[in-house]
């Protein structure tokens, strides 16, 4: 007799072909979505799929969380699946709790996966999560990027996270669990109207009379993703044709920039600032609008740890010296996430920004062709307060500086979003 849920299994595992991982992690909270994913992936493993490793993150914010983690562990023991609970103890009681918890969750799981040689970790986000996220972002008047679909995959360090059931509705997963006699844990916050996602879920139910269903909203998000892909393709083509990487700076003709459509120019500067600063997120909102106005007016501006200047009708985006002031690492370490210096490495040497004081000790800095704003924020070798070398400012003394995020990295960043 055929299994009525065999198609669901195929949908949950299709994204792992043809290059399926040797080992696969799965994040399990105890809720219906992640539990269904656990059972599906465990069944796949029994049928010849990769071995499965489960992980649960206890944020320590609800008294029920520890009990839910034990519930998951018991299920994993019966399935013969390795399980580990990770506990977050980093909440300081201030700031954006949901965002801090999310970041901590992924950081903990990424470290866990890397330590256990697990290249991929599957998450139980569903089509309903996609629809709820779309509606919440719509309420914030988000544009194309905000309304586009949740990412199917992304990387955190060496770990790739993936959402194999993003196209599956929650009711399908609950039906799968119920048919097999499996229970799950209901998070009480799912019914608490203090939470935006709960209100979004209720709003979607109210809209069903208009034919607005979770799948409707998810399909619209998919269409927005296609629009976003098109926009970034034109950003990439524009960058490839006109942008130049000059020792860590991005240089772009202002005349060309002023002819770009706003959606293209906005994404271009966001990518530039994110690439130079190494930030996880690009700047948004009015701050980017102010930068675009500064470019049109031919005036400089600092934003997101970067500085934009206009010289000879060329835009130059560079690292802002204030953003790296006080940043010090040992001479053998990577500085500012993108510079690696090689040289004699005298005892006690460290890398810090050149600054105005160091620049004054570099008599050949003008021969480098780099402006003062750039040179001040470049890496230099210091020892006991004395300048040893500043390779980008012409004071080499046997030292060289290597840009880790090079031109190819920049062009790839224009497509990654």
What would you say about this model in short?
Helices cover 43% and strands 18% of the residues. It has helices at residues 6-13, 32-46, 65-79, 97-115, 127-139, 144-147, 170-179, 196-207, 214-242, 254-257, 262-277, 286-297, 321-324, 355-359, 372-376, 407-413, and strands at residues 24-27, 52-58, 82-87, 120-122, 153-156, 159-162, 244-246, 249-253, 301-303, 306-311, 314-319, 329-330, 339-342, 350-353, 379-383, 386-389, 400-403.
Question: Can you give the mean pLDDT?
Answer: 93
- Give the strand tally: 17
Compute the separation of the termini in Å.
Answer: 45 Å
The major beta sheet can be summarized as: 6 strands, mixed
**Proportion of residues in β-strands:** 15-25%
Question: pLDDT under 50 segments (min length 5)?
Answer: none
Derived from helix and strand composition plus strand pairing, the structural class reads alpha+beta
Q: State the strand order across the main sheet.
A: 3-2-1-4-6-5
Q: What is the overall silhouette?
A: globular
Q: State Rg.
A: 25 Å
Helix share of residues?
40-55%
| Count of discrete alpha- or pi-helical segments spanning 4 or more residues | 16
Could you list some keywords that capture this structure?
single chain, about 425 residues, 6-stranded mixed β-sheet, 17 strands, globular
Q: What do these coordinates show?
A:
α3 (65-79) links the parallel β2 (52-58) and β3. α5 packs across α8. The protein has 417 residues and is an alpha+beta fold. It has helices spanning 6-13, 32-46, 65-79, 97-115, 127-139, 144-147, 170-179, 196-207, 214-242, 254-257, 262-277, 286-297, 321-324, 355-359, 372-376, 407-413; strands spanning 24-27, 52-58, 82-87, 120-122, 153-156, 159-162, 244-246, 249-253, 301-303, 306-311, 314-319, 329-330, 339-342, 350-353, 379-383, 386-389, 400-403. The strands form four sheets. A six-stranded mixed β-sheet has the order 3-2-1-4-6-5, sandwiched between helices. Strands 7-8-11-10-9 form a five-stranded antiparallel β-sheet. The chain has 16 helices and 17 strands. The model has no long low-confidence stretch (mean pLDDT 93). The longest helix is centred in the middle third of the chain and has 29 residues, at 214-242. 43% of the residues lie in helices and 18% in strands.
